Amino acid sequence: MYFFDARLVGRADLIGVEPARFSIGYWLAEAHTGRGIATAALDALIDFARSNSDAAEIYTGVTHGNRASEALLVRLGFEPTDTFDSYTRFRLSLRRGMIDCAT
Ligand SMILES: CC(C)(COP(=O)(O)OP(=O)(O)OC[C@H]1O[C@@H](n2cnc3c(N)ncnc32)[C@H](O)[C@@H]1OP(=O)(O)O)[C@@H](O)C(=O)NCCC(=O)NCCS
Hints:
Layout: E1 2-4, E2 7-18, E3 21-28, H1 37-50, E4 57-63, H2 67-75, E5 79-83, E6 87-93
Parallel strand pairs: 3-4
Antiparallel strand pairs: 1-2, 2-3, 4-6, 5-6
This protein binds coenzyme A (COA).
């Protein structure tokens, strides 16, 4: 959860799907967008996931047209991997410097 002046302004969750696989969810109150708060919060969650030696990747889905969410993920190093009718799946590999065979 993110707080500004002791008020809740957003939230980011790292969700374990399988031992090596995580998902993320996030939102920010509109009045607090555009300042990098979500980027900083997700960056901290990604660091936390990386510190788990079993963690290999993070996936999430973004509804088509949600440009702010897509920009946020790309800023953090996620890449689009699959396109479905209503959303695009993004993926981030957590294994720096290793050959990554997942597709
Ligand atoms: C998705 C969501 C969290 C993105 O919010 P956001 O404000 O764009 O993200 P950040 O807090 O990281 O801010 C990034 C913006 O701040 C700017 N910024 C300023 N300082 C920054 C910094 N130190 N670091 C990164 N960005 C910074 C960036 O340039 C960017 O501006 P832009 O929107 O003009 O390109 C928000 O739009 C939201 O809550 N949407 C509704 C819920 C939702 O869609 N959730 C995701 C479902 S998939």
